[in-house]
Design brief:
It is built from nine helices and ten strands. By secondary structure, it is α/β, with parallel strands linked by helices. It has one domain: Alpha/Beta hydrolase fold, catalytic domain (Rossmann fold, 3-Layer(aba) Sandwich), CATH 3.40.50.1820. Helix 3 runs parallel beside helix 9 and helix 7 packs parallel to helix 8. The two termini are about 25 Å apart. The relative contact order is 0.15. Pfam families: Esterase. One of its GO terms (molecular function) is hydrolase activity. Keywords: Hydrolase. This is Alpha/beta hydrolase-fold protein. InterPro entries: AB_hydrolase_fold, Esterase-like, Mycobacterial_A85_antigen.
Length: about 240
């Protein structure tokens, strides 16, 4: 049975107009127990923001880590996405990829930093995503290395086009990435084809390690779904967030 303390969560909703995307983008903001705007907090930025909260139960997990595991309190920002254009925004071959990545780095980050006491060091901004959300998080880190250096990727959709971009990087010694993939993801049917996610993640791991990135990598029994990822979120968050 879930401890009731974990369910007492402060989650705010924000609306932000994006000039790049020419639309309003919705954000979900988790504030930790004991939140004090006079303090400063590490921050986790999640792709698929609604899913991270509803299916990943990231706010409940965060409360447990902070209240029971001694993790330093942190803020979570979930950037919501329209699933109809998700591939267009998240995949490097998508028609909205450039606009989305620009909006994320140049509009979402300043918007949050103007309203919430999040830390502004790239070492205390963590990007998190599942599937294409994992791959676009890594793209964002490579495109904006002054902003981001830490990535959580759960079953990253590291398609060939993404791997080609990663392969062009020379020095990734500044990058730290936590990766996991499910062993039952060898023939996942996505909207752009059928993919072996285990192979995609193994190849991407090697690409990153060959360029000096610090990679924490695991393969476990699991399918390409939130039932698998939800259970791995505590380890992912604990990996990057210091204990208080």
């Amino acid at each position: 049975m879930t401890d009731s303390r974990y369910l007492k969560r402060t989650i705010l909703k924000e609306e932000m107009f994006s000039s790049f995307l020419n639309e309003t983008r919705y954000l979900r903001i988790y504030l930790p127990p004991g939140y004090n705007e006079l303090l400063s907090y590490p921050v986790v930025y999640c792709q698929d923001g609604e899913e991270f909260f509803n299916f990943g139960r990231i706010a409940t997990t965060a409360n447990r880590l902070i209240l029971d595991e001694g993790i330093e309190p942190f803020i979570i920002v979930g950037v919501e996405v329209n699933v109809k254009v998700r591939t267009q925004e998240y995949a490097p071959f998508g028609s909205l990829f450039d606009k989305y990545t620009s909006a994320f780095a140049e509009e979402v980050i300043p918007f949050i930093e103007a309203k919430y006491p999040v830390r502004r060091s790239k070492d205390e901004r963590i990007l998190a995503g599942d599937s294409l959300g994992g791959s676009v998080s890594l793209h964002l880190a490579l495109m904006y290395p002054d902003l981001f250096s830490k990535v959580i990727s759960m079953s990253g959709a590291f398609y060939e086009e993404s791997q080609e971009i990663y392969a062009q990087a020379n020095d990734l010694t500044w990058l730290e990435i936590w990766m996991i993939v499910g062993l039952q993801e060898r023939d996942f049917e996505a909207d752009t084809g059928v993919y072996d996610f285990v192979d995609l993640n193994r190849k991407t791991r090697k690409l990153l390690e060959d360029r000096g990135a610090a990679v924490t990598y695991a393969e476990k029994d699991g399918k390409h779904q939130w039932g698998f990822w939800q259970n791995e979120l505590p380890d992912a968050l604990t990996h990057f967030l210091n204990k208080g």
